[in-house]
Write a structure and sequence with these properties.
Blueprint lengths: L8 H8 L5 H9 L1 H8 L2 H6 L6 H24 L3 H7 L5 H10 L10 H4 L21 H34 L1 E3 L2 E3 L12 H4 L5 H13 L5 H26 L17
Antiparallel strand pairs: 1-2
Length: 262
């Protein structure tokens, strides 16, 4: 997810093309259960509400950084450069690091995990890494499944960015002591990655992915496994982050309205 979620973006995906390729439908169906479980997590419930808090946003970025740092370089290394260009993708980890640094996280790398409290456990991505050691073309197929999840997460990220901006504007106004200052803007380089970079659209990604798999019979299951393993890694990271934040983190003022999700 995602993620998620930022993985709420799977619903954007469903609307992004009329009649998505069969492989994209199967990927969505194969990850549907963990996608739903990710959206139902307390942290995601608060983050996708009408009034997400800055603290929940920090927890979210910390959790995703742990997954992206552990997986994204390995996934990209398993996919040839030419295919990455055709897919229209670019690494998101630098944008995540930029946002964390803007939030004054002194050390967002695993060595600083004790201070941050949201880095992945050593076995968090254990299901994915073995898939990337398989013989070709299954290795590339597994990586493409993982990138399906990471790319899909950027779709829902745009919704979260809009919610954060709305909450910032709503936090300013007149109070008993006069006008309230507008809170400083939160960094959203990761959430708005697709708006700020010349990345290909989701239909292009799906078409290239499907064409690659069609030319290599027998690779679909490896792609499905890579997608599921990556989504499960995202889910576990966000679940731990929500637990660390505690039930009182964030305003929690509204339940997530499913109709408002992308």
């Amino acid at each position: 997810m995602p993620p998620a979620t930022a993985h709420a973006g799977r619903r954007v995906e469903a609307r992004a093309a009329d009649g998505p390729p069969a492989l994209m439908r199967r990927l969505r169906e194969h990850t549907a259960a963990v996608h739903a479980a990710t959206e139902a997590l307390p942290l995601m419930h608060r983050l996708l509400s009408a009034y997400p808090s800055g603290e929940d946003y920090r927890c979210y970025l910390h959790a995703l950084h742990g997954v992206y740092a552990a997986l994204e370089p390995a996934l990209y290394a398993a996919v040839p450069q030419r295919l990455r260009s055709e897919l229209g993708i670019a690494p998101k980890l630098p944008a995540l690091l930029q946002d964390l640094q803007a939030l004054h996280v002194a050390d967002p790398h695993p060595a600083g995990a004790a201070a941050i409290g949201s880095m992945p456990k050593p076995d968090r991505c254990a299901r994915v890494h073995p898939l990337l050691k398989a013989a070709e073309p299954r290795r590339t197929a597994s990586a493409l499944g993982g990138l399906y999840v990471l790319e899909g997460s950027t779709l829902g990220g745009q919704l979260i960015a809009r919610r954060l901006k709305h909450n910032r504007r709503a936090s300013s106004g007149s109070g008993p002591d006069g006008p309230s200052p507008t809170p400083p803007a939160l960094p959203t380089a990761f959430l708005e990655f697709r708006n700020r970079h010349a990345a290909g659209d989701w239909r292009r990604f799906g078409s290239v992915l499907s064409a690659w798999a069609a030319a290599r019979p027998g690779t679909e299951q490896a792609m499905l496994d890579g997608a599921l393993g990556t989504f499960e890694s995202v889910h576990a990271a966000l679940a731990d982050a929500g637990t660390a934040a505690g039930p009182g983190a964030g305003p929690g003022r509204a339940s997530t309205d499913a109709s408002a999700l992308p």
